[in-house]
Fold this sequence. Notes:
Belongs to the aldehyde dehydrogenase family. With about 500 residues, the chain is an alpha/beta fold. The chain folds into two domains: about 10-260 and about 465-485, Aldehyde Dehydrogenase, Chain A, domain 1 (3-Layer(aba) Sandwich), CATH 3.40.605; about 265-445, Aldehyde Dehydrogenase, Chain A, domain 2, CATH 3.40.309. The chain has 15 helices and 22 strands. The strands form six sheets. The protein has a seven-stranded mixed β-sheet with strand order 14-15-16-13-12-18-19, sandwiched between helices. A six-stranded mixed β-sheet has the order 9-8-7-10-11-21, sandwiched between helices. Strand 12, helix 9 (about 275-285) and strand 13 form a beta-alpha-beta unit.
Amino acid sequence: MPLTLTRPDLQRQHNFIANAWHDATDGRLLPVSDPATDTVFAHVPDSAAADARAAVDAAHAAFPAWRALTGRERAQYLKRWHALILAYQDDLGRLISREQGKPLAEGRGEVLYAASYVEWFAEEAARSHGEVIPEPVRGRKMLMVKEPVGVVAAITPWNFPAAMIARKIAPALAAGCTVVAKPAEDTPLTSLALVRLAEEAGLPAGVLNMVTASRERAAEVVDVWLADSRVRKITFTGSTPVGKHLVRESAATLKRVSMELGGNAPFIVFEDADLDAAVAGLMAAKFRNGGQTCVCPNRVFVHDAVHYDFVARLSARVAALKVGPASAPDSQIGPMINARAVDKIAAHVADAVERGACVVTGGERLAALGANYFAPTILVGVDAGMRCTQEETFGPVVPVTRFEHEDEVVAAANDTPFGLAAYFYTRDMARAWRVADRLESGIVGINEGALAAEVAPFGGIKESGYGREGSRHGLDDYTQMKYLCQGGLG
């Protein structure tokens, strides 16, 4: 099944600044590879500081006119963009699968997920309400109004190249901000294709700008935005160490920041759980995108009374997963993003086995398929001292730990610096609310493994970051409050 496009012009290979497509100022290029084969199939600009500065110049110049539009006027641009994303869902899905590796059905699904955020924030653009404040003395009127924060710099990861861009750009544009963006070096083509469709939707020049850069030059690009006082907000999804660096460096100009960072999600199966539902929920939560999501269960806790039964049911499902390239119609798990990712997964499994864990299924590289494939894996006998419980594996590995008591497992679930997502299964509704209240996490799935939706606030606590994407609160992250007080009315 070829991953060719019906509209080849969607595979853009230039920066987009002020509604024009540009090479890097010094002509350097960044290769883009298919993780299924490690074959280079495109090149994009490997941008430098001058390119990043040009993007800010364009966004800053466009901001006054864009913010002056009404919310309904901005919504019309987003609605046209949304319609074009849906019209080219298949091409965008193929691009995602080609550069990121996820099966084609997941690539198409991600496009719909991305489009849902564009549609949601198009509708929310006209609903950014202020407040009328009851005046404490006669003769005054007191109001709070919301304004766009200004130029926003968006930095996105490789695992969801369409959805992460949409979750940041759509609310920024809806709020009246202009945007400079840098997609991940591994997956720039999907983001550039979305920008091409935004251009086609008639977005005014300078409102949305995008530059691409390699890992080696990413800091050069982003440092320009961190130092520039015209950039008023940084929104980032990625690792906690990088997020901490961005927060530190943005302090000099007191930028607003939204950080969606790493996770270490627990998945708890209590003794009274519906085991088939729990297995289905874990399969959906863990193996989406081959386990390469920030909300993937990273530590699975199963009550001692149902441990054997649960693992047996789970292993039957995991062993049946079809691993292969996105071009194979029956693939359910694609390649990992690159060799570094596979090395980390293999190291986590090896460490667990050395420390006493047992492999139930999988546990090995699938070299016959290519360098970036790893077998879906279940480990049992896992404890809190193993790397796979301390770090995000970001791959198709399920480490299972036994527990006996509710207090014990809640304490273990919370014993991490991170707090993005958590899951648990139980039929006891009193326990459901009790445990949900005690879990230190920004997102909790109760008898549910699929959590994300454009209508709900997505984000974490502790070292998983702050700020929310999606819901009406996602729009607020791109606005600032202004208090108006008029006197002399008595």
